[in-house]
Specification:
Strand 9 and strand 10 form a beta hairpin. The chain has helices at about 5-15, 25-35, 45-85, and strands at about 90-95, 100, 105-110, 115-125, 130-140, 140-145, 160-170, 175, 180-190, 195-200, 205, 210-215. It contains three helices and twelve strands; from the N terminus they run αααββββββββββββ.
Length: about 220
């Protein structure tokens, strides 16, 4: 049976062959087979043959590009992994409202502009408000407050996880959007579903992309 075109040959091969993806070697083999079995009294048209060679050239180029992209992605992942591993032992600040109380706790936040007043509200694991603190005349940038671990009545609270909220206001009393930052020491690195997580203080995992600031060398 005469094969009239490489496209038809590919369709037949895909319908009968076990593998569903043709590589450039398969494509070249099909083209060679087509030439061997063409009707000598009715050979393949030159223009058609040239078009099929162009198809093969395009396929080879695409495969080479795909291979180069895979190598680039692998190299980038290895570089990022090496950088991330180097962060173990360093302190970081990430977006979030979680804090861990151990005698004391550091509360971090960022201000986009100077604030005349800042109110920090602290909640326990049940969502109950346990402490409110107000400060004044805070300049823009990264700010921090050391919570002594006591509630509004001066009683020491148990160690554990707490949350906080920051409200800031300018000199005219208008609210300023403050960004809460959760701090911690990087104690490990986790690679899951193509994502890189930092393990903070041995228990909490955060995405590498959530890191706002790295502290210390």
């Amino acid at each position: 049976m005469e094969v009239t075109g490489i496209t038809n040959a590919v369709s037949v091969a895909q319908g009968s062959a076990a593998k569903s993806v043709l590589g450039k070697d398969d494509f070249l083999k099909l083209l060679t087979t087509q030439l061997q079995h063409q009707n000598p009294l009715n050979p393949m048209d030159g223009a058609e043959f040239t078009a099929q060679l162009a198809q093969f050239s395009s396929l080879e180029t695409l495969l080479d590009i795909s291979s180069q992209i895979k190598e680039m992605v692998m190299s980038q992942n290895l570089t990022q992994a090496a950088i991330t591993m180097g962060m173990i032992g360093r302190k970081v600040k990430v977006r979030g409202e979680d804090i861990s109380l151990k005698d004391k706790a550091e509360i971090n936040y960022s201000l986009p502009q100077d604030a005349a007043k800042v109110k920090i509200s602290i909640f326990d694991s049940t969502g109950k408000l346990v402490r409110e603190v107000e400060t004044t005349n805070q300049v823009s940038g990264s700010r921090s407050f050391i919570w002594d671990g006591k509630d509004s009545n001066g009683r020491a609270l148990p160690e554990g996880n707490y949350k906080f909220k920051v409200e800031a206001f300018n000199a005219s009393g208008s609210p300023i959007k403050a960004t809460p930052l959760s701090g911690g020491s990087v104690t490990g690195v986790s690679f899951e579903n193509n994502n890189i997580y930092l393990v903070l203080d041995g228990k909490r995992k955060v995405l590498m992309s959530e890191v706002e600031e790295v502290i210390g060398g």
